[in-house]
Every structure is written in C-alpha cells, then in structure tokens.
Amino acid sequence: MGLIATIQRQSRRSYLVSQFSLLGALSATSAIALSADATGSIVATSAAAMAAVGFSMFTLHHARRGVYRKLEHAHIADGERQRMMESDVMTGAVARRHFMECLDQAVRIKTGAPVTLMLIDIDHFKQLNDTLGHPAGDAALVHLSNCLRHQFKTGQVGRLGGDEFAILFIGTSEDEIARQTASLLQLIAKPFRHAGHDIALSVSIGTATSIDRAHDASGLFQNADLALYASKSAGRGHATTFEESMLQDRRRVRYLQRELRAAIYLDHLELHYQPVVDAQKQVKGFEALVRWRHPVRGLIPPIEFIPVAESSTLIDLLGEWVFTRACQDLARLGHLNVSINVSGEQLKRDNLVAMTERVLQQTGCAPQRIVYEITETAATDATPDVLRRLNKLRAMGIRLALDDFGTGHCGFNYLKTLPIDVIKIDRSYISNLGKDRLAQVLVSALTEVGRIQGVSVVAEGIETDEDFQLAKAAGCDRFQGYAICRPQPLEQIDLSNVDGVLAEAS
Q1: Which residues of 233-267 are buried (b: 16+ CB within 10 A; e: fewer)?
Q2: Mean pLDDT in the chain?
Q3: How many angstroms separate the CA atoms of 226 and 246, rounded?
C-alpha cells in the first residue's frame, strides 16, 4: 500500500506540473493571438495551437483519471492479497505464515508475560474424509475453527495446514488455559450436523509455555509438538502439557532408533517361533516374533522397541527384515505356514505391497504359506487405501489374520467386509472363559461366524490346560500360548516330535 500511495503522489505532482505548463503555453498563445501586430495567419495558427493545448489538457485529465482508477483497483487487489496472506480463506483462522511471524515476535519481545502455544489436531481426520467425503472434512475444519475462536477468546487461532491448528496466548495463566481446554474437549465432542450426518469430533492437544526452557519460537513449537505426540500416544482425545521429562523421552527414542537401525543392518535381530496347534495338539503353523539382542543391554522386549520403530518409517525397514528372514526359514519348516505381524503404520504405505512381492521373488517362497496378522485397531482404522493394499496382498496368495479380536471396537460387521482368513481371539477373553459368561458368548459366537464363513478361529493366550479345554469346547479350531509352547529360536524346535515340544514347554 505504501508503494501505491507514493505512485499516487508522484502522479499528482506530474499532473500539476503538466497542467501549469499547458496553461502557460495557452496563455502565451492567447497573448500572441490578441496582439495588435498579429496577422490573420498568426491568429489562425494561435487558434489552432490553443485548440491543441486544450485537447492536450482534456486528454491529460482523462489519462489521470484512468491511472487513478487502475491504482484504486490495484489497491483493492493488494489489500485482498494481504488479507489472504494473513488469514485462512476456508476457516477464517490466521494463516500459517502470519501466525508463525506473530509467534516469533511474541517470543522475541521479552515483556515478562508468559507466551503459551497450543497445538490441536483432529483425530482420525483422514478416515473422516475417506468415509464421508472431503466436503464433510471441510465442514469439520470450519466447525473446529469456530469452536476454538468461541472457547479461546484471549488467544489467536491459526491454521497451520490440513487438520492442524494452533493458538497463541500472551499473558494468559496456565490454569485458565487448562480450564478452557477442558471445556473445549466437551464442546467439540457434541455432534454437529452436515449433509444429513451427525459428526462428532475428537481432538488431540499439546501445550507448552515460554518458561519451559524455550528461548525461541522453534523451541516452543518443539515442546508443544512433544506434548501433542504424548496426547496421541495416550489414545487421542487428550490434552497434555509439556513436561521436561518429554525431552528425555525424545532423546531416548532417538537413541533407540539409531541403535535399532544399526541392529537391522548388523543382523543383531532374531526370530523366535511359537507353534499354533489344532485340537489334537498337532502343529499347523508358527507365529514369527522378532527379538532384539543388544550387545550391551541384552534382550530388549518388543514392547519397548516396536513403538519406537512405528514412530518413524523405521518400521518399514524392520518389517522387511522380519519378512525376509521368515521366508528364508520356511525351507526348514516343511509344509507349515508362518504368521507375521504387520504394523498399522506399514499398511499406510504402498511400500508394504511392493516389498512383499520383491522378497517373495528373491526367496522363491510360496505366498500361500504366509499369513499377515493385522491388529483389530488397524482394521477399524482401515481406509479405502488400506483395504486396497490388503486386497492386493490377498490376490498374491497371502492369507490375512485379524489379531487381538475383542480389544477394540471391531464389530461383527467388519468380519463380513474385511478380506480375512483367520480370526485370533484376544487372550483376555480366553483366560476368562471359565468365569465370564460374556466371554463365553463372544467366543462361541465368533467360532460360529468362522464356521459359516470358512474362517479359522485361533484362541490366543492358552496359559493352562483348562484354557485349552474351554476354548476347544467353545469351538476354536486353533490354539496358541505358553501352555502349548513358548516362542523359541528355530534351532530349538523339534518338528519331528510335537508331543516332545509340548511336554518340554509344560
């Protein structure tokens, strides 16, 4: 706008100078024409000159008006561009670039008032887009933005991109922010209506203040992001405030990521195999379970390093190592199948399908001998892209198992829509068969569904002989657990004497 104003001033000056010059020329011409000594030709020439000068003044006037109109249009367009740079068109929130500039300025200016940054993500936003369409996703973004502005009147609401929002507070107390955040979680959970659908949202929130050793905007953003990650790890729908221990956890995660990457390349991982048996306790297959034997820390449990791998694309590298080793071991397992756990993070990328096809070709392994196990949580979160990948794997000949059934919200309808061949009932139901009527009904119903659909039903977590007998009576046709055999390295399993393996395990 400053440039346009300068052009207007210069244009006005140039116009005035030109106008005075033309007026001077017109006066001189008039004087000549009215002079007593002027001849007829001079008068005629003067008259023509006066007409030319008048026409020039008229043209200059209209040209000036045209320039002003163009400058006015440019001024309006410039203002619109500035407005679009500073605010998000769809939601009305502050645009990312302008928000980050405000955040940087707020942190740099030391006023003594605490600067607080809150990051907000919509939980399962991609699933909302895939199931109800992008217009519903857009409506959810607008709804969230309105809720944020309504709830946090002392904060500046910005949209960082996608479903990511942020709020900047200056001088607002932590207690007040915590109170407003609790109210927001309740408000956002109330369904809103869109295109005939009632849509209820949940959000994950991470908050950090400038007093948490964050001396610049990037440090404050990093701390808030760590708190946001903690909320998502806690099951989503949570609000978390940054704590100093989160930095230690992050350093630990980075350390484990480096060490695990090295372990994969240096072949410091192992596969242990746990038998899956039939009702006669004859081995029908194995589940391959990865183990990490660290040269200093010893055996690191999967519950410690699998989440670390899943927090990055390192899970793809780990998954390929497990699959390759299992395919190589199949030659020693005779005709038996091997089940391999696949992370929900792997299912989000096409790399899983390409990797599976490549390793099968390299090892010459028959795909019919591989069972990919996916968790119930991954199944319920399955988007059309995930289902497409599962169908591609199944078309190759890979069999699919639904693991840990009963731990999440996977209803019986999923058993009709998901391309699965095996259902593995979670150990929490198997261990309660003798005392929980609900567990008995669920297991019996699942075995009946499996019989109708031609799907094998595996009872996981068989800890005692009573568990085995009850699961067998309920209709399960496959069994797995410590009472049958603990996971062991392949070299320690005697495939020629199954009864010996079971006796040894017991």
Answers
A1: eeeebbbbbbeeebeeeeeeeeebbebbeebbeee
A2: 84
A3: 7
Check the CA dihedral 223-226-231-234 and report its sign. negative
Query: What is the per-residue pLDDT across 182-223, written as a single tens digit (0 to 9) for each?
Result: 999 999 999 999 989 899 999 999 999 987 555 688 889 989
Q: Concatenated DSSP letters for 242-302? A: --THHHHHHHHHHHHHHHHHHHHHHT-EEEEEEEEE-TT--EEEEEEEEEEEETTTEEEPH
Give me 312's structure tokens. 């990055």
Residue 313's φ and ψ, nearest 5 degrees, are -75, 5
Specify the residue for token string 């915590």: 178
The answer to whether the beta carbons of residues 482 and 463 sit under 8 Å apart is yes
Of the two residues 414 and 498, the one the predictor is more confident about is 414
Nearest to 433 by CA among 487, 473, 477, 493: 473
Helices (DSSP H) in 87-133: which residue ranges?
96-108, 125-132
Query: What is the tens place of the pLDDT at every residue in 176-193?
Result: 999 999 999 999 999 999
CA-based nearest residue to 429, from 391, 376, 378, 385: 376
* Calpha distance 195→136 (Å, rounded): 8
Q: Please compute the mean of the pLDDT values over residues 63-80 and round it to a whole number.
A: 56
d(CA 212, CA 25) in angstroms, rounded, equals 75
Question: What would the pLDDT profile of 96-141 be if each residue is shown by its tens digit?
Answer: 999 999 999 998 887 778 899 999 999 989 878 878 889 999 999 9
